Amino acid sequence: MITSASRLRRLFAREPLVVAPGAYDGLTTRLVEQAGFEAVYMTGAGTAAAHGYPDYGLLTGSEMADNAAFMAASASIPVIADADTGYGNELNVTRTVRDFERAGVAAIHIEDQVAPKRCGHLDGKEVIARDAFVGKISAAIAAKRDRDFIIIARTDARGVADLDEAIARANLALDAGADMAFVEAVQTLEEMAAVPSRVQGMCLLNVVPGGKTPTVSHEDARSMGYRLAICPGVLLRAIVPAADAALQALKQSGLPMRTGSEVAIADSFRRFGAAEWDALRREYAVREA
Predict the structure, then answer these.
(1) How many domains in the chain?
(2) What pLDDT score was predicted for residue 193?
(3) I need a labelling partner for 122 at 20 to 30 A (CA). Which of 186, 222, 283, 286 fits?
(4) Which domain CATH number covers 85?
(5) What is the pTM of this model?
(6) 152-175: per-residue pLDDT in tens?
């Protein structure tokens, strides 16, 4: 059986760099797929915002896994999901892996922040001890039922200690069986380039304009040796100002704002699978004698 996880592994085997734009619901997941990207990232910050919260670790593991399931069901490309701290100790991590696997996602990342966590590009973070982090990653590996399911070990130690500590944690997690390392919030181009050369496995780069990490092109990330680039805020940052402008126009004029690219309602529904549902309606509609 070809699973979402096996498709993602094949993608890593074929592509030097996989780019996964951030999405946070079924609509944005479909937009990423329709734009031609081959993977999508379920952003924790975006998921929290869609629930009306800041990225402070306020959503539960079940809420995050449920959202991942909606996203995985809405498109055919693999979903890489933020699983925060694993939502507790090693037992909670075990359930988290099983829940996200059942949701149909291809990969998750689990971090070493103290709960409740916060966005990796904010100050004031705390991290758990090295052995506790390795224990969580080991539990995650043991909990996998699909051998292709990808566990990404994220460390926020750069913002709490230094780059050396973050690199050490990343390598310990890889030694424990993690498939990829995610060194969050490196602060200079030199640090960014150092991560793939010092980490003994595949590396993820988090592209966050306005965050602590310098913004680089995908080509630069590939040249440095990164294998996965996630862009968590690309849609959220575009959608919020556009929604603000549309609402202000409606409030001021009493009419919906015209964008110059209006499409018919039926055409907009087609982007979200109307043809498939119309075919089912035709096939199974009750026919009167």
Answers:
(1) 1
(2) 97
(3) 222
(4) 3.20.20.60
(5) 0.92
(6) 999 999 988 899 999 999 999 999
